[in-house]
Specification:
Elements (H helix, E strand, L loop, with lengths): L9 H9 L7 H11 L4 E4 L6 H15 L9 E4 L3 H14 L8 E4 L5 H10 L3 E4 L1 H9 L10 E4 L2 H6 L3 H10 L5 E6 L4 H10 L4 E4 L10 E7 L5 H11 L5 E4 L3 H13 L4 E4 L5 H12 L5 E4 L1 H4 L9 E4 L6 H8 L9 E7 L4 H11 L29 H4 L4 H13 L2 H36 L23 H5 L14
Parallel strand pairs: 1-6, 1-7, 2-4, 2-5, 3-4, 5-6, 8-13, 9-11, 9-12, 10-11, 12-13
Helix pairs in contact: 2-3, 3-4, 14-15, 17-18
The structure holds adenosine monophosphate.
Adenosine monophosphate binds next to helix 3.
């Protein structure tokens, strides 16, 4: 099927062709004709499938042919993150190259209200928004929702994960009942389906690609190393791979910062992206990465969700994601548009459960890779989520390599690592200090303890255990006249 068969306007076909798209993706083939007919759409599709164009292209043609009302936005696209919202706006700009009349605004947190309010005042056709900021703007009387006829709820599962669903439900309640709704989610658990049923009317249901299929074009691999060796293993892995540009995922924001500092210290051209950064620095960082000014981006899932970098060569999972779907999303950043991509994961022995979840979801094992200088450890079968990390083989037979690695790490790694190792080195040190001081104290103590054993007067007959009463001067009193007070000799 070609784009010409979808029923799009010549202007859109031209814009799409100039964007470099030759054929529509499955979600586009299935969604666009129905959306153009005015049908609701329920799409199970994840980022990387071309779903943005699947909801934007029909929106553009529908808006272009329907009547605009002064200061009344006619389409609303809800996105869970600012990054996604910005990306949708960028796609909108590309696709509306020949629809210059259509205007848009992005309403998202982390930026001042001023510019957004100005644009709303001038009038826009399409609002691309994160739920919280949209409600803020609505409550401040800056947005009119009564003209919205085309609603897109994108990444619904992520909205739910992020706790945005109550806001989304409130927003939907503010919109006209008669409208067209397109609802997309990477996964469709029951609670999402229930919401979809509430928001949509007789939708065309489309499920493109099982969550595992985005990974088909990506070479995957996994090494199992000790938690403390991960940074060094990652550096080693990067050195042995031909990395043009890479996203490096951590599970937690604070780990993003720690790994970023470590990588920087080791001379990598790296930047970081996490939710605690203000919008300005996030946008700037993404620009730098897009433009190739930095080669690697250490990031968290939420910050990098939907981050679309053409021709990304690598994805590294510094942590095994705790949510199996995140694995698919992460590795789906690479291997796009038929280009080869490589995705490697550093697991620890206690990641058993998470890795099992992933292999179950993608329907196959992640091939084991060998990171030079590191033995692959075994998964800990008894490990549970959040359980303690143990590395059985390290403790036993395979102790040589780890020991070498450990000392190397202590010497070279960054502050947090050296803090850690310093701590672990301090322990024995402080333990020996304790031991030392107790050694110093011991003689005093023992001296005190021995004091009773060193009586000032000689012990007679019964050694250390002379009963006290025997020391009493009884005899002296009994025989006052026979002696001159002289003690009887021991021979008596
Ligand atoms: P999305 O899933 O919407 O985030 O899109 C992922 C990437 O695929 C984006 O970089 C789009 O520009 C690109 N894309 C969307 N549709 C097509 C298409 N039909 N052919 C080639 N690339 C596309």
């Amino acid at each position: 099927m070609s784009f010409d068969d979808l029923g799009l306007s010549p202007e859109l076909l031209k814009a799409v062709q100039e964007a470099g798209y030759t054929n529509p993706t499955p979600i586009q083939q299935n969604a666009i004709p129905y959306a153009l007919m005015g049908r609701d759409v329920l799409g199970t599709a994840q980022t990387g499938t071309g779903k943005t164009a699947a909801f934007l292209l029909p929106a553009i043609d529908i808006l272009d042919t329907s009547k605009a009302k002064a200061r009344m936005p006619r389409a609303l696209i809800l996105e869970p993150t600012r990054e996604l919202a910005i990306q949708v706006e960028e796609a909108f700009d590309v696709y509306t190259k020949y629809h210059q009349k259509l205007s848009t605004v992005v309403l998202m947190g982390g930026v001042s209200y001023g510019d957004q309010d100005q644009r709303l005042l001038r009038g826009v056709d399409v609002i691309i928004a994160t739920p919280g900021r949209l409600l803020d703007s609505f409550e401040r009387g800056r947005v009119m929702m009564s003209g919205i006829k085309y609603l897109v709820i994108d990444e619904a599962d992520r909205m739910m994960d992020m706790g945005f669903m109550p806001d989304v439900e409130r927003i939907v309640g503010l919109l006209p009942k008669i409208r067209q709704t397109l609802f997309f989610s990477a996964t469709m658990p029951n609670e999402i389906k229930r919401l979809a049923d509430a928001f949509l009317t007789n939708p065309k249901e489309i499920a493109v690609s099982a969550p595992s299929s985005a990974a088909e074009t990506v070479t995957q691999g996994m090494a199992v190393v000790d938690e403390r060796d991960k940074r060094e293993a990652l550096r080693q892995l990067i050195k042995t791979e031909e990395v043009r540009n890479a996203l490096i995922f951590c599970n937690r924001k604070r780990d993003v910062a720690v790994l970023y500092r470590s990588m920087k210290k080791h001379g990598f051209n790296v930047a970081q992206l996490h939710g605690d950064m203000d919008q300005g620095s996030r946008t700037e960082t993404m620009e730098m990465f897009r433009e190739g000014k930095v080669d690697m981006l250490v990031c968290s899932d939420v910050a990098a969700r939907g981050l679309d970098i053409q021709g990304l060569s690598h994805v590294f999972n510094f942590d095994v994601p705790m949510n199996a779907e995140d694995y698919v999303h992460r590795i789906g950043r690479t291997g796009r548009a038929g280009l080869p991509g490589r995705a490697f994961t550093l697991a620890t022995p206690s990641d058993t459960k998470f890795v099992q979840d992933i292999t179950k979801l993608i329907g196959r094992d992640i091939p084991e890779i060998q990171v030079e200088g590191f033995e692959n450890l075994e998964f800990d079968d008894s490990a549970r989520r959040g359980g303690r990390r143990r590395s059985p083989r390290r403790d036993t037979a395979k102790s040589d390599t780890p020991r070498r690695t450990k000392s190397k790490r202590t010497a070279n790694d960054d502050k947090p690592a050296s803090k850690k190792s310093a701590k672990s080195e301090e322990k024995p040190a402080s333990a020996s200090k304790k031991a030392e001081s107790s050694q110093k104290r011991r003689p005093k103590t023992s001296k005190k303890k021995n004091e009773p054993r060193e009586p000032r007067e000689p012990v007679m007959g019964m050694g250390d255990h002379t009963p006290a009463f025997l020391s009493l001067p009884i005899r002296r009193r009994q025989k006052p006249t026979r002696s001159s007070g002289k003690e009887p000799s021991s021979a008596e």
